[in-house]
Design goal:
homodimer; 159 residues; alpha+beta; Alpha-Beta Plaits; four-stranded antiparallel sheet; DNA-binding; sequence-specific DNA binding (chains A, B); DNA-binding (chains A, B); transcription regulation (chains A, B); Tscrpt_reg_HTH_AsnC-type_CS (chains A, B)
Chain lengths: 159, 159
DNA sequence: CGGAATATGGAAAAATAATCTACCTATTCT
DNA sequence: AGAATAGGTAGATTATTTTTCCATATTCCG
């Protein structure tokens, strides 16, 4: 269970993990040591998975996001494994979900432009057979955050 | 332009931004000071936007991802602003795109379970009028990374 | 109830890392 | 040749993390 202090710490670290522990402590009303211990514990428990640098997509030339909906007719274990492995190899695929409903899989792909998406697409379908692929282009990224809501963490988690 | 060294640095920092500069330097074959200077520059240029802690979604009780496709009939400026503002207020909405094609907007929403999604959905439609809303549930998050591909950053970026 | 065990908070010191400066060298470009 | 760029070393300074030691609650049994 995460108490109010833990959630305050996580709230801060999800926005900026460069702040000194002493500063975080000050913000939440805790001295350095207990604040530091809580952070350690959150890391041990795996609540904090890691700390990473976030880059500006445009500045690394991947300003275009495409959502790719995939349907497959092949549901064998062997195909699935090849599919997963294939997508791991594409750094352009930044998110990959197995879905319920009509669509089997959903990808979020980042590329510099539409031409490059086409190149990616060709490489994808040459690597693995897919029944149906449909691409939807994002015109604008209005919101993107890695900060998860913490309100639900106050309750007991389902097992 | 980002040269090979910059990309190596970014590659490391996208995975783990807690490493000491000296250690990063060692990994890429650069002494501390020039490595440090490059990181400073990448931050000034805004290539590195910020450094954040990533949490385990399940451990903060938001293990369920839902993609929400929204179509609207209202395209006035006033409606748009209210729409954007409304979604900013929902911490469950972690991604929000304006799309081309049939669907106008796409959201990624994180919640603890389907019941909670329903609660979210009701709050959403009570806040703003939407023409059509369609929800697709992710059964499994197979891949999720904040690390952008860096191969395209080697080229000149379009203005 | 008393007291051990546990959890939590705090102060201060020790260890580590970041930051910044100065100066030197090699390479490239004009 | 001279300017500009990039890397290197060394050292001083500051900032931060990590550890140690201690105090205070709170809980849980016998």
């Amino acid at each position: 269970m995460l108490d109010r202090m833990d959630r305050k710490i996580l709230d801060i670290l999800q926005k900026d993990c460069t702040l000194p522990v002493a500063e975080i402590g000050k913000q939440i009303g805790l001295s350095t040591t207990p604040c530091w211990r809580r952070i350690q514990k959150l890391e041990e428990q795996g609540v904090i998975e890691r700390r990473v640098a976030l880059l500006d997509p445009k500045k690394v030339n991947v300003g275009v996001t495409v959502f790719v909906s995939i349907t497959t007719s092949n549901h064998t274990k062997e195909w699935l494994e090849r599919f997963h492995a294939a997508l791991e190899d594409f750094p352009e695929v930044v998110e990959f979900y197995r879905m319920s409903g009509q669509i089997d899989y959903l990808l979020r792909v980042v590329v510099p432009d539409i031409e490059r998406y086409d190149t990616f697409y060709k490489r994808l379908i040459s690597k693995i057979e897919l029944y149906d692929v449909s691409s939807a282009f994002a015109m604008e990224q209005i919101k993107f955050t890695t900060a998860l809501p913490l309100d639900y963490a106050a309750e007991e988690r389902r097992p």
